[in-house]
Amino acid sequence: MDKLIYLKQFETDDLGSLAFFEGDRDVNFPIKRIYYIYGVAKDKSRGGHAHKSLKQILWCPYGVIEVRINDGRLEKTYRLDSPEKALILSGGVWRTMHWIEESSVLCAAASDYYTEDDYIRNFEDYLEYVKKGYWANESKI
Ligand code: T46
Fold this sequence. Notes:
about 140 residues; mainly beta; 5-stranded antiparallel sheet; 1 helix; binds dTDP-4-keto-6-deoxyglucose
């Protein structure tokens, strides 16, 4: 199930702020991989795939990015417009990410190492996968 959380923050005045989260404590999985996406132009989109089992937490430490998710039945949009917001995504959910502001940075911490076998990159294939899923008769988001 997807979930928006607010990261713990240490506020200081003109020295800025520090936000953090911890694997297994603030997110419901151990973290095995961290990656980040940067240098994306305004109004460009990435993603357009689902993961079979990978769980992730996504956050935007700089800028504004919208994450649109779809479970083959429902759609939801999350706006990551503050460094304190983070989105936890379970496996089985189609996602696209949209750069609302130029040069926004998307960070991700993932439950497993990178493997292309976990991706479904074609939406028709994804809908077939959903039909066979244990959640075939209910929404996953
Ligand atoms: C996701 C969204 C939010 C690697 O070799 N290792 C990695 O850890 C990752 C994440 C990617 N790659 C390779 C695979 C592709 O050849 O980097 C290339 C670009 O990846 P992709 O087109 O999948 O990037 P996005 O921005 O569409 O999706 C990424 C993540 O791949 C994905 O897991 O959920 O961000």
